[in-house]
């Protein structure tokens, strides 16, 4: 079956993305100073003139793109994405179209710093750009706007000229894709073409998505773009949930990337400590790759731009695990073999990787693998695991193992799980078993 969906197509310039499997998302902006979620302006219905004051107090003295890039690389990530403008409209780049930006206010082009630092660490450069803009006067109020409950907003909408905002959006994207060298990945955010609470949402016609996409590809022919312009694009982006199988569109497997927070908030949220434990994060990573996806893991630098102590620890732990287990992740994808309970498989060529979420006692029975595995070992220390195939016709009895379906391979495990947060077993398949 052939398809025309772009997310099902593979090109030389999408290969880096398909093998990367792990990237870093960075949400940073004025909301990092408020430190209560990047949607703080929406939650608190803050008027623009009040919110604008954050631009005065925003002092990213500890924002160090090189340090972030270094942490990302050491965590085994090969790309990273920075919010160039979030829904609040404040721009972290030099733009001729508004003075509401970090060059005017802080004397720094954080996007320029970002691009340079990523390239210096050998990372692919990703930029996030919000389609929503709560600061622009021609951006009409809707249910996703801080003024949604303002009784004057409906009348005000009649005086706005949304096409002026559309021009602004296109002009800013042109700047981002012209002034900063090669941009590998562009993450637009987001469309909501539906009516809610009597407000019209926004979608492809509002953004001028078809033209905008054309512009991006013209300026950056090898760019990868997500699907949040409300038109089919290079990948789909499940957010804050894990798909239960490889993602498909019309039955075809598609390129996808799960973006995930560490505590439910993308921007720095000082008092929110609902952190996912590192064991969960690594399981989410293995789970994602086992379904052919990428994981874009987010950090929210604090009000000064520093990576928080917590996030730093998480990145270090991911890095420690990746140092030993990267080959089960980078360049790996789904396997056609069915894993036993509480495990997932990832596969790269004739290497099959069993990620063991919950260490069982004594043995692991692998259905369908009898006679297909040449060698088995723990990946963290390279130590061999003994393999057996038991007679399927014999019942299990006393000390005799049995009762496994035909074709089952049994691994003998040490009683104690290896000292790594997520143990992985590497199985080398015979060439004809792939
Ligand atoms: C959502 C949120 C936003 C966040 C993004 C990340 O669309 O609106 O705050 O930046 O997800 O994917």
UniProtKB/TrEMBL annotation:
<dbReference type="GO" id="GO:0005764">
    <property type="term" value="C:lysosome"/>
</dbReference>
<comment type="similarity">
    <text>Belongs to the glycosyl hydrolase 29 family.</text>
</comment>
<protein>
    <recommendedName>
        <fullName>alpha-L-fucosidase</fullName>
        <ecNumber>3.2.1.51</ecNumber>
    </recommendedName>
</protein>
<dbReference type="GO" id="GO:0016139">
    <property type="term" value="P:glycoside catabolic process"/>
</dbReference>
<dbReference type="InterPro" id="IPR057739">
    <property type="entry name" value="Glyco_hydro_29_N"/>
</dbReference>
<comment type="function">
    <text>Alpha-L-fucosidase is responsible for hydrolyzing the alpha-1,6-linked fucose joined to the reducing-end N-acetylglucosamine of the carbohydrate moieties of glycoproteins.</text>
</comment>
<dbReference type="InterPro" id="IPR016286">
    <property type="entry name" value="FUC_metazoa-typ"/>
</dbReference>
<dbReference type="InterPro" id="IPR000933">
    <property type="entry name" value="Glyco_hydro_29"/>
</dbReference>
<keyword id="KW-0326">Glycosidase</keyword>
<feature type="domain" description="Glycoside hydrolase family 29 N-terminal">
    <location>
        <begin position="9"/>
        <end position="325"/>
    </location>
</feature>
<dbReference type="GO" id="GO:0004560">
    <property type="term" value="F:alpha-L-fucosidase activity"/>
</dbReference>
<keyword id="KW-0732">Signal</keyword>
<dbReference type="Pfam" id="PF01120">
    <property type="entry name" value="Alpha_L_fucos"/>
</dbReference>
<feature type="site" description="May be important for catalysis">
    <location>
        <position position="259"/>
    </location>
</feature>
<keyword id="KW-0378">Hydrolase</keyword>
<dbReference type="InterPro" id="IPR017853">
    <property type="entry name" value="GH"/>
</dbReference>
<dbReference type="GO" id="GO:0006004">
    <property type="term" value="P:fucose metabolic process"/>
</dbReference>
């Amino acid at each position: 079956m052939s398809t025309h969906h772009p997310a099902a197509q593979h090109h030389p310039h999408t290969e880096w993305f398909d093998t990367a499997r792990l990237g870093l998302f960075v949400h940073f902006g004025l909301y990092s100073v408020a430190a209560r979620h990047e949607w703080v302006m929406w939650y608190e219905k803050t008027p623009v003139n009040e919110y604008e004051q954050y631009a005065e107090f925003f002092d990213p003295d500890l924002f160090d793109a090189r340090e972030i890039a270094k942490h990302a690389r050491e965590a085994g990530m090969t790309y990273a994405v920075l919010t160039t403008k979030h829904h609040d409209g404040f721009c972290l780049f030099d733009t001729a179209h508004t003075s509401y930006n970090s060059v005017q206010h802080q004397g720094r082009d954080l996007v320029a710093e970002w691009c340079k630092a990523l390239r210096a660490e050998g990372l692919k450069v990703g930029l996030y750009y919000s389609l929503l803009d709560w600061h622009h006067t021609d951006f009409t109020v809707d249910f996703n706007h801080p003024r949604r409950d303002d009784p004057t907003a409906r009348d005000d909408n009649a005086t706005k000229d949304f096409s002026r905002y559309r021009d602004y959006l296109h002009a800013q994207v042109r700047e981002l894709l012209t002034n900063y060298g090669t941009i590998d990945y562009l993450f637009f955010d987001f469309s909501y073409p539906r009516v809610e609470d009597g407000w019209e949402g926004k979608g492809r016609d509002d953004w001028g998505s078809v033209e905008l996409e054309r512009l991006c590809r013209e300026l950056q022919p090898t760019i990868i773009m997500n699907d949040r312009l409300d038109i089919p694009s290079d990948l789909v982006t499940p957010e804050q949930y894990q798909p239960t199988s490889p993602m498909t569109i019309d039955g075809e497997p598609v390129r996808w990337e799960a973006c995930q927070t560490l505590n439910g908030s993308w921007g720095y949220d000082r008092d929110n400590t609902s952190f996912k434990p590192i064991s969960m994060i690594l399981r989410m990573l293995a789970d994602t790759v086992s379904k052919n996806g990428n994981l874009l893991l987010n950090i929210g630098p604090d009000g000064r731009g520093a990576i928080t102590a917590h996030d730093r620890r998480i990145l270090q732990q991911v890095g420690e695990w990746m140092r030993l287990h990267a080959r089960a992740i980078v360049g790996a994808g789904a396997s056609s073999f069915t894993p036993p309970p509480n495990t997932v498989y990832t596969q790269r060529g004739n290497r099959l990787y069993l990620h063991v979420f919950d260490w069982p006692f004594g043995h692991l029975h692998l259905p369908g693998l009898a006679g297909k595995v040449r060698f088995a070992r723990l990946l963290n220390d390279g130590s061999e695991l003994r393999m057996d195939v038991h007679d399927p016709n014999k019942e299990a009895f006393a000390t005799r193992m049995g009762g496994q379906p035909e074709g089952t391979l049994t691994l003998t495990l040490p009683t104690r799980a290896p000292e790594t947060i997520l143990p992985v077993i590497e199985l080398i398949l015979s060439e004809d078993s792939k």
